[in-house]
């Protein structure tokens, strides 16, 4: 951020809510974070209590401001970024949710999705939304709430209920119920939004049985989202930037021209490549999605979503007990010359892109009696790199042009060994930025553009600085041999 003024970024994620204050040069000066409870009320069901989310977002926003020693007068704007697809339905008059939020990971509508796909709607959905019919996206989650909360469907038809992803729910609440809006990146994850026409689509609304009256207005990612209630920070502050977290990360990584790619390693892994103002339809089961929309002009991305990355490391810690801290995997991996032929396919909740096999389950292959914790830890890290290679090969096939480097971020990107192995396996440089909080930075940049702290996209590129660059070192023969072993292991976990 080139001029005076600070930006408050709110990053509402799957397991925690964060608020980060950025100074005028885009440097984070204060961070507050709270974890909140996950609810698993059924097999494959995952819910969040929107009241927990709202309470924590308010709290972390104030904590970050206090830490930074700032009042609302010093904040030029707020940027919001969020876990995507997660669905909230609330009462327009009171703002009260009528059900807990159904989280993106929730599989309860998988059977409904199979039915809709079997009825032959896949092509139409794909052509309009860029998505594959899957329980991951919001559409069938909304329908589920309308079908299971008594009277909800009629009330939704009458316009008494609002639907929103988490961004939209927060905007509604933080503006004192004044604004019901979302941005184009979040809309593109609902399976109800035509990414070419940039509008909700009647054919999709009819197919998924979602009344138009409950939908938010779709604005640019850098836009006027109203002002916060004075009680939040002591005075009203404009909300000026909004994007889904993976799109915000790509923006914060300055992936602003075609062919630039990022991969975020948190609970899951999400790789995005900017394809410019032309949406590229994947031949390799990747998603086409909105990267950002500025001044009414849409930039698109291709996305590969992997459901388990850091979650496998968490499982080594909490499930298997072979480590006490995730960062120990770095040392364990260097303690052995290789994984001793062990492959760990972390399909704990099925496989995402490019396989989309929700019935596949995790497995560890190739164990002999001399395999120890270091080999397993190494295999778990390697799996993250192999899955990224799956995505990057698919992207390269669709994209056609050169992908010169992969920019990485997220909690796992702190692992040097992983970054080096990733570069080796991709045969491509891997770049880690100085500011690892790229998701929040992206939301801050979007807000900064709107309120004039940034002049244009060049300022976003200038704010990105490389901290470490990992060059590929592995010989190609070894790289391909290792990767062939992974492909074989994946084939053995597939459900069909
Ligand atoms: N040094 C590390 N090496 C490997 N994995 C790590 C390391 N640090 C964190 N992780 C993993 O990264 C994840 C946390 O990343 P984070 O970006 O905070 O996730 P999220 O935003 O999805 O909650 C955890 O699953 C953790 O196991
Ligand atoms: O909250 P995260 O970082 O796990 O990201 C979740 C994604 O947006 C889901 O699509």
UniProtKB/TrEMBL annotation:
Binding positions for ATP per the UniProt entry: 14-16, 267, 310, 411
Residues where ADP binds: 14, 18, 267, 310, 411, 415
Residues engaged in binding sn-glycerol 3-phosphate: 14, 84-85, 136, 245
Regulation acting on activity, per entry: Inhibited by fructose 1,6-bisphosphate (FBP).
MF annotations from Gene Ontology: ATP binding; glycerol kinase activity
Domain Carbohydrate kinase FGGY C-terminal: 262-449
Its EC number(s): 2.7.1.30
Binding-site positions, glycerol: 84-85, 136, 245-246
Known catalytic reactions: glycerol + ATP = sn-glycerol 3-phosphate + ADP + H(+)
Keyword ATP-binding part of the UniProt annotation: yes
Cellular component, GO annotation: cytosol
GO biological process entries: glycerol catabolic process; glycerol-3-phosphate metabolic process
Pathway: Polyol metabolism; glycerol degradation via glycerol kinase pathway; sn-glycerol 3-phosphate from glycerol: step 1/1
Function per UniProt: Key enzyme in the regulation of glycerol uptake and metabolism. Catalyzes the phosphorylation of glycerol to yield sn-glycerol 3-phosphate.
PANTHER family in UniProt: GLYCEROL KINASE, SUGAR KINASE
Family the UniProt entry places it in: Belongs to the FGGY kinase family.
Protein's name in the database: Glycerol kinase
Organism for this UniProt entry: Azospirillum cavernae
Gene that this sequence comes from: glpK
């Amino acid at each position: 951020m080139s001029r005076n003024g600070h930006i408050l970024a709110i990053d509402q994620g799957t397991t925690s809510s964060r608020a980060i204050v950025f100074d005028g040069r885009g440097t984070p000066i204060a961070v507050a974070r709270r974890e909140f409870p996950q609810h698993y009320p059924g097999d494959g069901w995952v819910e969040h209590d929107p009241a927990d989310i709202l309470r924590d977002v308010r709290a972390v926003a104030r904590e970050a401001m206090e830490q930074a020693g700032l009042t609302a007068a010093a904040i030029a704007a707020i940027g919001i970024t969020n876990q995507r697809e997660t669905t909230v339905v609330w009462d327009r008059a009171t703002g009260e949710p009528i059900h807990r939020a159904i989280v993106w990971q929730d599989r309860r509508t998988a059977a409904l999705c199979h039915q809709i796909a079997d009825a032959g709607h896949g092509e139409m959905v794909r052509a309009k939304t860029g998505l594959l019919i899957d329980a991951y996206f919001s559409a069938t989650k909304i329908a589920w709430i309308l079908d299971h909360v008594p009277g909800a469907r009629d009330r939704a038809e009458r316009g008494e209920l609002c639907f929103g992803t988490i961004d939209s729910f927060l905007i509604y609440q933080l503006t004192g119920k004044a604004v019901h809006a979302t941005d184009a990146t979040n809309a593109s994850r609902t399976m109800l939004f035509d990414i070419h026409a940039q509008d909700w689509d009647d054919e999709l609304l009819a197919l998924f049985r979602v009344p138009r009256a409950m939908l938010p207005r779709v604005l640019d990612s850098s836009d006027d989202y109203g002002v916060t209630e004075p009680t939040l920070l002591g005075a009203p502050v404009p909300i000026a930037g909004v994007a889904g977290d993976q799109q915000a990360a790509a923006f914060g990584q300055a992936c602003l021209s075609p062919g630039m790619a990022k991969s975020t390693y948190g609970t899951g892994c999400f790789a995005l490549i900017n394809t410019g103002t032309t949406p590229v339809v994947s031949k390799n089961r990747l998603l086409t999605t909105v990267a950002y929309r500025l001044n009414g002009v849409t930039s698109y991305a291709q996305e590969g979503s992997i459901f388990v990355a850091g979650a496998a490391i968490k499982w080594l810690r909490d499930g298997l007990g072979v480590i006490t801290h995730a960062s120990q995997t770095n040392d364990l991996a260097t303690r052995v010359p290789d994984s001793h032929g062990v492959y760990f396919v972390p399909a704990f909740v099925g496989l995402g892109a490019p396989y989309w096999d929700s019935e596949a389950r995790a497995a560890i292959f190739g164990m002999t009696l001399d395999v120890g914790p270091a080999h397993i830890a190494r295999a778990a890290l390697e799996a993250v790199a192999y899955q990224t290679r799956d995505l990057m090969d698919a992207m390269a096939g669709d994209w056609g042009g050169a992908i010169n480097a992969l920019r990485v971020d997220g909690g796992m990107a702190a692992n040097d060994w992983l970054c080096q192995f990733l570069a080796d396996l991709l045969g491509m440089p891997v770049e880690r930025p100085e500011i690892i909080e790229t998701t929040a930075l992206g939301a801050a940049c979007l807000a900064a553009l709107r309120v004039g702290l940034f002049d244009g996209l060049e300022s976003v590129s200038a704010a990105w600085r490389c901290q470490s660059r990992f060059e590929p070192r592995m010989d190609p023969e070894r790289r391909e041999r290792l990767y062939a072993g992974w492909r074989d292991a994946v084939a053995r976990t597939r459900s069909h």
